[in-house]
Amino acid sequence: MATKTWRMAADIDPNAAVAVSFILDGSRQPVDNIGTLAAAEILVASIAVCFASSCQITMDARSLPRASISVDVLAIKAPDRPNRVASVTIHVEISADLELRTYDRILRDAKRICTVSNSLSPDIVIDVSRAHADGPA
Question: All domains of the chain, ordered by start, with CATH?
Answer without folding.
Answer: 5-118 (3.30.300.20)
